[in-house]
Amino acid sequence: xxxxxxxxxxxxxxxxxxxxxxxxxxxxxxxxxxxxxxxxxxxxxxxxxxxxxxxxxxxxxxxxxxxxxxxxxxxxxxxxxxxxxxxxxxxxxxxxxxxxxxxxxxxxxxxxxxxxx
Length: 117
Known about the structure:
The protein has a 3-stranded parallel sheet with strand order 2-1-3, with helices on both faces. The chain is an alpha/beta fold.
């Protein structure tokens, strides 16, 4: 019998603030590394599950907002009161996190990428 090793889960998210465009480059570089043949990347993939949300605020990015969503709300400040209608991305990710808490592979770590211009 082979022992089944539970993988730890890491969530990576960026662009809650649309104006932090360098965050897209950081996430792209991270993804490129994680899927590469580099030995460390291979070891990370063997031990971890990565959940990557490269753009938490696509409406705000599309509109050219600096900090706000479609409704002008700072998504980084409403995680405790998010609504599926006013903050659909935050509400959805929060639901995923809640569901992961009772799964076989609960969430261990969240990396929320912010960058200054």
